[in-house]
Write a structure and sequence with these properties.
globular; alpha+beta; five-stranded antiparallel β-sheet; Phosphatase 2c, domain 1; about 250 residues; six-stranded antiparallel β-sheet
């Protein structure tokens, strides 16, 4: 398993509230995680930092040993992080309202278990086919599912940044957790909406299907988002099964 990641402040923000990390346990499984802090002045960056550090610490001390254990572990972890963020938000008035999205993946020999809450996304590239494997917890996505908006209208909607689920928003944090095949040569992309709001699926697919090193692919995706205006922080993480080069 090879992984590369990059985070960029974008062209219009004064602070980067995204966080990204990869952890490898002594037992062998690996964890990749991306978080997008929300709340602006309410310290979304701190909420994202809590999420990354807590998940990484617990993974390194007691990593799940199989897919079933990873599924329940991720669900429990998201709720635990939610409790920590809510507790922290009561310490200072400037912390009130802070929260974060989260998308995390635990890798096994031929599979990956993915958890998400919010609108940060996961994709799997298998051969030349790119598939979004997470569902956005957002208002516009609910409207699309109900038939009130087309996907094209949703992409242009001024409400597209309103999320319906996140860590730190309510006492209950319900993450979606699913398992997917992850075979030799497959790529997993985890990213924040700073990428997907500006770089479409076809463009992402073209980058992932290239022969470039993973680090170059990350860099190219961020450059594309910034070229399109870069109104938000941009974070991308790419993992490839048995990739030989970084």
């Amino acid at each position: 398993m090879r992984t590369a990641f990059q985070s960029n402040i974008g062209r219009q923000r004064s602070q980067n509230q995204d966080r990204v990390a990869k952890f490898t346990s002594e037992q062998g499984p690996q964890l990749a995680v991306v978080a997008d802090g929300i709340g602006g002045n309410q310290r979304g960056d701190l909420a994202a930092e809590i999420a990354i550090k807590s998940l990484g610490r617990d993974f390194m001390s007691d990593a799940p040993s199989d897919e079933n254990e990873a599924s329940s572990w991720l669900s429990v972890q998201v709720q635990s992080i939610n409790n920590q963020v809510l507790k922290k938000s009561k310490e200072k008035s400037s912390y009130r309202g802070m929260g974060t999205t989260l998308v995390a993946a635990v890798f096994f020999e031929e599979s990956v278990v993915v958890a998400n809450i919010g609108d940060s996304r996961g994709y799997i590239m298998h051969g030349d086919m790119l598939t979004q494997i997470t569902i956005d917890h957002s208002l516009v996505n609910e409207l699309v599912k109900n038939g009130d908006l087309t996907e094209q209208e949703a992409a242009r909607s001024p409400q597209k940044n309103i999320i319906t689920r996140a860590i730190g928003i309510s006492p209950s944090a319900n993450a979606d957790v699913n398992r997917f095949p992850f075979k030799n040569g497959d790529q997993l992309l985890l990213c924040t909406d700073g990428l997907t709001n500006l770089v479409n699926k076809t463009q992402i697919s073209q980058v992932l299907s290239s022969n470039k090193k993973l680090t170059k692919k990350c860099n190219q995706l961020i450059k594309m988002a910034n070229k399109a205006g870069g109104p938000d922080n941009i974070t991308v993480l790419i993992s490839q099964q048995d990739q030989e080069r970084l």
